[in-house]
UniProtKB/TrEMBL annotation, chain A:
<dbReference type="GO" id="GO:0005634">
    <property type="term" value="C:nucleus"/>
</dbReference>
<protein>
    <submittedName>
        <fullName>Cenp-O kinetochore centromere component-domain-containing protein</fullName>
    </submittedName>
</protein>
<keyword id="KW-0158">Chromosome</keyword>
<keyword id="KW-0539">Nucleus</keyword>
<keyword id="KW-0137">Centromere</keyword>
<dbReference type="GO" id="GO:0031511">
    <property type="term" value="C:Mis6-Sim4 complex"/>
</dbReference>
<comment type="similarity">
    <text>Belongs to the CENP-O/MCM21 family.</text>
</comment>
<dbReference type="InterPro" id="IPR018464">
    <property type="entry name" value="CENP-O"/>
</dbReference>
<dbReference type="Pfam" id="PF09496">
    <property type="entry name" value="CENP-O"/>
</dbReference>
From TrEMBL, chain B:
<dbReference type="GO" id="GO:0034080">
    <property type="term" value="P:CENP-A containing chromatin assembly"/>
</dbReference>
<feature type="compositionally biased region" description="Basic and acidic residues">
    <location>
        <begin position="335"/>
        <end position="355"/>
    </location>
</feature>
<dbReference type="Pfam" id="PF05238">
    <property type="entry name" value="CENP-N"/>
</dbReference>
<dbReference type="GO" id="GO:0007059">
    <property type="term" value="P:chromosome segregation"/>
</dbReference>
<dbReference type="InterPro" id="IPR007902">
    <property type="entry name" value="Chl4/mis15/CENP-N"/>
</dbReference>
<feature type="region of interest" description="Disordered">
    <location>
        <begin position="318"/>
        <end position="379"/>
    </location>
</feature>
<protein>
    <submittedName>
        <fullName>Centromere protein Chl4/mis15/CENP-N</fullName>
    </submittedName>
</protein>
Length: 327, 478
């Protein structure tokens, strides 16, 4: 029995070594692929290659790189469109055999987050409504639930529900016809605005937190020492709890009430709690602060005062603190 | 000293959290026995924590000195201080053993004076956190009711999201149901999922200290769970949505079902504000897995993009606009960069029942042949199912489909004779994950991936559907 054990161990060891090496190889291959495609899309390299190809007639010995170059150029162009216009369209074919209009119009919306990375693209797939006029209808989408696509659709892409009713009404109210027109551009515009402002709001919260200093920990682990107010960070993808570092403003917690980040809740050391509303343009619209002795109107005014920008909220609070030394 | 007789008067208050259930109640052992030993110990340490011990006070020697009635010898001596109690459980923590000794210690030792309703609620919630698939959940959508004359106001693109401010919501729901039932509420945050649980225990007595047999207080059929997912206009309940069946002839029905109905009706009312009334709408989705509900009716991107469209929800077809790699050179797995461990996907406990027909009623064979699937079929499967049942999964444990098409007729003249009712065909799929099971059947060649209707790919994101010519028929319109 004992004689077979060492080889077994060695086997396992070798196996794990092999898997780790394989993973390493895969990583390096990925990296190489990434570097190759970045090189191919870079302008100077492309020019060099083209010059080289123009001067040297393509021989059978050299591999022809022009298809690769073409693909890279096409991809780079698409990406430029996506970065510049943020909303792009593409055709998509519904694979369902029962679909009457399998050709869908896809809209892709790219939003850049505060860290300079682009979020996962959002998609809306539109389908043509059967009928003589070219009306569109949202078929599938990946917009988060707190942005109501239904509402936007009703406003910008109305589809007459009962045709005969509309026709009966038309002679009476000719101006209604205009209102029933579909406006895809405005629909996409509004949708993109909702998504972009959502990311801006999340960035604002993260900025404020960064200014105050943040400590993070995972939710799963069991923590014995509960110093300070830990709140679950709903803005991060991995389950995390965060706590603000001790600061001279006395704020112990700053967190959005929902993923939508319209309302932001504040908590102070002395038990005061506050909430303010963040508008689409980054302005603190309304604020409420309640302490043990009722509302703190001065602090509320500090939150919404000045230029009311959310980025400068902490500066205003600091000024407020200096102005009222015994606060 | 005999305890002064309490005056019993009907009140509208909720059942107090500190109402004690006698520890001798046999069903308590069952309730506690659902948990593991470690979970029980965790709970006890939480109860004995400095901040909580007031609410969960254990039975100490000084209580004995007050001279309560029990004369018989308990197997567990009463401890002097709370620290002694803590030490006793620390000892159990380091020692190996069954969970029974922990339960006995709790019920016959340190909490011999009774388990409070709150403690029982914590036990139940803990069980649910450990076993997220222990109940069947129904997803309901919160929608706003407008008065007939009022038009929807200006475009405000944000959907309504219930903001559960715990105490306000509880006092509202209490106001709604207190004339009819008496209840105990317990709100808790899920440990792993973005959910808040509300556990409601209902009882049909108007009295503060109900004189019900203690078994009633532990009756699990009187417990209703409502889960509020974060940031989305949905509510999940553990109540089977029998829907519109208010046909009970009694004015005051007192069985548990009608008590549950009362609570269900009260939830949207409690969430409503003046000038802003809400109602709950069924969404034909019932599943055991909360994970599936969160994927299909949750805050994320995947609510309205399933089946073939899951490639968009997971964003696995194209990268970010800054990615220099052309998308056809990158695998979907790489785009899914968060490589999740495959959740027991090999465990294929799919049983494929088809009452009525047996055309495709074959047992799925072991999936060793996966490696040599014809390329064409593989492509078709990928285009039909996208990533569902492969990279991402929303495990439905049951899928009920009613087909309105007449079997055998592929033609289009079928709605001309309306006088005889068309035979309808109901299919029920059951298993641990129905959609990935169908995907596996497609891989094995049992299901034709190109010709199957889209509901088989999970595209409709429902667990109950009425289908006509491959399309789901929504009840309101037909």
């Amino acid at each position: 029995m004992s004689t077979t054990e060492p080889p077994k161990n060695m086997e396992e060891e070798l196996d794990s070594e092999i898997t780790s090496i394989r993973a390493e190889i895969r990583n390096l291959q990925r990296k190489r692929r990434f570097l190759v495609s970045s090189l191919l899309t870079s302008e100077p390299i492309r020019k060099r290659l083209q010059e080289y190809q123009a001067s040297n007639p393509p021989s059978s010995r050299d591999k022809d790189v022009s298809p690769l170059l073409d693909a890279a150029e096409k991809h780079a162009e698409t990406n430029h469109h996506r970065v510049a216009f943020s909303a792009t369209t593409f055709p998509f074919k519904d694979p369902s055999p029962n679909s009457e209009n399998p050709n869908l119009l896809g809209v892709r919306i790219d939003v850049c987050a505060g860290n300079g990375r682009f979020a996962k693209p959002y998609y809306v797939l539109l389908r043509r409504v059967p009928g003589e006029d070219k009306r569109l209808q949202v078929h599938r989408h990946t917009i988060p639930a707190f942005i109501s696509v239904d509402k936007l659709e009703r406003a910008f892409l109305p589809v007459p529900s009962a045709r005969e009713e509309a026709q009966a009404e038309e002679p009476l109210k000719p101006w209604k016809k205009n209102a029933k027109k579909q406006d895809l551009t405005r629909f996409v515009h509004e949708l993109r605005r909702q998504l972009a402002t959502w990311y801006l709001r999340m960035d604002a919260v993260n900025l404020l937190r960064g200014k105050l200093g943040v400590v993070r920990r995972s939710v799963a682990a069991y923590h014995d020492d509960d110093d300070g107010v830990w709140t679950r960070d709903i803005l991060s993808d991995n389950q995390e709890e965060i706590r603000l570092e001790a600061n001279d403003l006395g704020i112990v917690s700053l967190s959005p009430t929902t993923l939508e980040t319209t309302y932001i809740r504040l908590e102070w050391q002395d038990g005061r709690v506050g909430r303010f509303k963040l508008s689409h343009s980054g302005v603190v619209e309304r604020a409420v602060v309640i302490g043990d002795h009722g509302r703190d109107k001065l602090l509320e005014a500090a939150l919404t005062g000045g230029d009311a920008k959310v980025e400068t909220v902490l500066d205003r609070l600091k000024q407020h603190l200096r102005g009222v030394p015994n606060a | 000293m005999a305890r002064p007789k309490t005056i019993r008067a009907p009140t509208t208050a909720s059942l107090p959290s500190n109402l004690r259930i006698p520890s001798t109640t046999p069903s308590l052992v069952k309730s506690f026995g659902k948990l593991t030993r470690q979970a029980l110990l965790d709970l006890v340490f939480y109860w004995l924590d400095d901040r909580n011990v007031q609410s969960f006070a254990p039975y100490l020697e000084q209580d004995e000195a007050e001279g309560t009635d029990d004369e018989e010898l308990s197997p567990y001596p009463t401890e002097q201080t709370i620290d002694d109690v803590r030490n006793a459980y620390q000892e159990l923590q380091v020692r190996k053993g069954g969970k029974r000794e922990v339960i006995d210690r709790i019920l016959e030792g340190d909490w011999r004076h009774g388990i409070t309703l709150r403690q029982l609620a914590m036990v139940d919630i803990r069980y649910m956190n450990d076993h997220p698939s222990s109940l069947r959940w129904t997803a309901l959508e919160l929608t706003r009711i407008f008065a007939d004359s009022a038009q929807p106001p200006e475009i405000d693109a944000s959907a309504y999201i219930p903001r559960v401010h715990a105490s306000t919501f509880l006092s509202n729901i209490q106001k709604q149901i207190s004339p009819l039932v008496k209840a105990h509420y317990y709100l808790a945050r899920s440990s792993a999922l973005p959910l808040t649980f509300l556990r409601i225990f209902v009882i049909n007595s108007p009295y503060q200290n109900p004189r019900q047999p203690p078994e009633t207080l532990t009756d699990s059929s009187r417990v209703i769970y409502v889960a509020f997912p974060d940031s989305c206009p949905f509510v999940y309940t553990s109540i089977a949505s029998t829907g519109s069946k208010p046909s009970s002839t009694h004015a005051v029905a007192t069985d548990t079902r009608s008590l549950q109905r009362i609570v269900r009706d009260a939830v949207p009312k409690a969430l409503s504000l003046p000038q802003e009334r809400y109602t709950l709408k069924a969404t034909s989705l019932t599943a055991k897995s909360l994970q599936a509900l969160l994927a299909l009716r949750g805050p994320g991107r995947s609510n309205r993009a399933h089946g073939a469209f899951s490639i968009f929800a997971d964003a696995v077809i194209e990268g970010s606009p800054l990615d220099p790699r052309p998308p056809n050179t990158v695998s979907p797995e790489e785009y899914m960069n968060r490589t999740e461990p495959e959740k027991d996907s090999n465990k294929d406990t799919e049983d494929h029942k088809e009452p009525g027909t047996s055309a495709t009623g074959k047992k799925s064979r072991p999936s060793e042949q996966d490696t040599h699937i014809p390329k064409k079929r593989k492509l078709a499967i990928h285009s039909r199912f996208g990533t569902s049942g492969y990279l991402s999964s929303a495990p439905l444990d049951r899928l009920d489909v009613r087909l309105l098409d007449r079997p055998g007729t592929e033609g289009d003249d079928e709605d001309d004779d309306a006088d005889h009712a068309p035979p309808s065909l109901s299919l029920t799929f059951a298993g641990s994950d129905v959609i990935s099971g169908i995907r596996k059947l497609a891989e094995l060649g049992v299901v034709d991936p190109e010709r199957m209707p889209s509901w088989m790919t999970g595209e409709e994101a429902v667990s109950m559907a009425v289908v006509h010519r491959g399309h789901r028929v929504v009840k309101d319109s037909g």
